[in-house]
Amino acid sequence: MKTIKLVAASILCLLFVSAFSMNTKHGEPEGKGFTPAKSATCTRVKAQLCSDCGFGSKKDNCAKCNKWMGSSKSQAYLCGDCGFGSKKDNCVKCNKWVGSSGVNAQLCSDCSFGSKKDNCSKCNKWMGS
Ligand SMILES: [Zn+2]
Ligand SMILES: [Zn+2]
Ligand SMILES: [Zn+2]
């Protein structure tokens, strides 16, 4: 009688634990998977230059029109397409892989003027907000 009670209790306990762990396992990936997918499409990604295109004074040239930027430069961004996955690690100028030596690409005051700064530095598509 004692052993039956013990077995029944342990089975109940096992059931409870497995049901609980299933619940948490089920809820977790949904929440985790949703956030990165959302931010990947909505957030603009900083455009980068490879070590060639960003070498020396070249990094002071506009990533779009190649004009010298002087002191009025602003960060260049990529749209969700051009910045998706590993594409964000390609140089905005020559499309070569930037690797670990990426330099932030910047825009001159013309190319970043007004609403132009909301266009992708690579494909010129509007990036949205
Ligand atoms: Zn420019
Ligand atoms: Zn490059
Ligand atoms: Zn783009």
Largest sheet: 2 strands, antiparallel
Bound small molecules, deduplicated: zinc ion
Into how many domains do the coordinates divide? 2
Task: Tell me, briefly, the overall form.
Answer: elongated
The spatial strand order of the largest sheet comes to: 1-4
Low-confidence sequence ranges: 24-41
H/E element order: HEEEEEE
Derived structural class: alpha+beta
Number of helices: 1
* Helix share bin: 25-40%
Q: For the terminal residues, how far apart are their CA atoms?
A: 69 Å
Describe this structure in words.
With 129 residues, the chain is an alpha+beta fold. It folds into two domains: 1-42; 44-118, no CATH class. The protein is 32% helix and 9% strand. The protein has a two-stranded antiparallel ribbon. The chain has a two-stranded antiparallel sheet with strand order 2-5. It is elongated. The structure holds zinc ion (ZN) (3 copies).
